[in-house]
Write a structure and sequence with these properties.
The protein is mainly beta and about 280 residues long. It has 6 helices and 18 strands. The chain has one domain. Strand 17 and strand 18 form a beta hairpin. The termini are far apart.
């Protein structure tokens, strides 16, 4: 697990430059008859977010990711379908919905019975829980059922539609309830970094979770510890981190009535086949 100090180190100046240089890879031109998931690329910003910026700057998601490409308009509409394969059991639901507007904006969601609950306690964890394998947030795949994930970097090339999903987006309301903690950091221009926990290393075990500081270790609620990994902070508050994402590549049928491709786990260990049909 990444220590909070490493997480903050990723939140260094240069976000816009890193975004411009990010190698956005559109799905390859593999055979549409193949059942193998389409190749994909995910990653994180090399520079992360400048810790000394205010949340007014961090909230400008469009300025960070760039506007959708107009060429994606041919795929606009409402799509519904399902995921399949052995990995599908790790997702929050088998049924998937996708809506893409003509301007390139849209959302993807898993057709769960209800939306995620509203966060009621900033001191408790949110959508995360400890398990024998560590922390599970949302589902084993990392996705949260019933949440409409905004689409980023929507683009189209021929019959290939690609977009990205910011995996931490379901934690936005909960992260906004956290109080940022300042600490000296000689590696950032302003000399100060911000986080929701003092700098330390997190450790999980079946007996519980701890954060190790220079002065010793303290227990921490496991659900809260994993939830906080989804947040990034600035001097005036915290937001859901958008320093990492999941990239999706879908191939449309010749009549543009179907989309097929794959959805990868957040940790990239496996993927489920995804097939959608235009409604």
């Amino acid at each position: 697990m990444k220590p909070w100090s490493l997480f903050i180190a990723l939140a260094v100046a240069g976000l816009l430059g890193a975004c411009e240089a990010a190698p956005w890879v559109v799905a390859s031109e593999s055979s549409p008859e193949s059942d193998a998931p389409l190749p994909r690329t995910s990653g994180s910003f090399a520079g992360g977010v400048e810790p000394c910026e205010s949340l007014a700057g961090l909230a400008e998601r469009r300025a960070t990711w760039g506007a959708p490409l107009a060429s994606s308009a041919s795929h606009a509409g409402l799509w519904r379908g399902s995921i399949s394969g052995s990995a599908a059991l790790a997702f929050p639901a088998f049924e998937v919905g996708l809506e893409l507007l003509p301007d390139g904006s849209g959302s993807l969601w898993f057709e769960s019975a209800s939306a995620p609950p509203e966060p009621e306690n900033a001191e408790a964890g949110y959508l995360c829980n400890g398990s024998v394998s560590g922390g599970v947030c949302g589902s084993v795949s990392g996705f949260v059922g019933g949440f409409a994930y905004p689409l980023e970097t929507v683009a189209a090339r021929g019959n290939i539609l690609s977009f990205s999903i910011v995996d931490a987006d379901p934690w936005q309301d909960w992260c906004s309830q956290q109080q940022p903690i300042a600490r000296a950091d000689p590696f950032v221009g302003c000399g100060t970094a911000f986080d929701a926990l003092p700098p330390g290393d997190e450790h999980w075990s079946p007996e519980g979770c701890q954060v190790t500081f220079d002065t010793g270790s303290e227990p921490i609620d496991c659900d809260r510890m994993y939830s906080l990994e989804r947040c990034q902070c600035a001097p005036d508050g915290c937001v859901a981190s958008f320093a990492s994402w999941i990239e999706v590549g879908l191939r449309s049928s010749p009549d543009r009535a179907e989309l097929s491709g794959s959805l990868w786990f957040k940790d990239e260990t496996d993927a489920a086949l995804l097939r959608l049909r235009r409604q």
